[in-house]
Fold this sequence. Notes:
By secondary structure, this protein is α+β, with helices and mostly antiparallel strands.
Amino acid sequence: MMSTISIEGMEFYAYHGCFAEEKIIGTRFIVDLFLETNTIEAENTDSLVKTINYLDVYQLVKSQMEIKSNLLEHLGRRIVDAIKKSFPEVTDVKVKVKKMNPPLGGKIDFVSLTIQS
Length: 117
């Protein structure tokens, strides 16, 4: 049985961006992640080893957030690729990365990228 495991609202302080000040000052990012996987064994056994451990996923996303990227597109692709490499049981990954309060010369809550693979 295919299910979607979501881990939403992961917040990080990071240094992604094209502008010099973004690389020095940094800003907040929020990451939402949706993983399609077969959960039938976990449903039947109630065993953590039969599903995807949320802590492992969080640590993987955190490690990718610590590597600077100029573009959200590059960051999003790295997260997707790392998930697929580390969790081959995931058949589909969707990640949304929000950059909070981007320096665009006005009041903007966030800009975001959603990538799916």
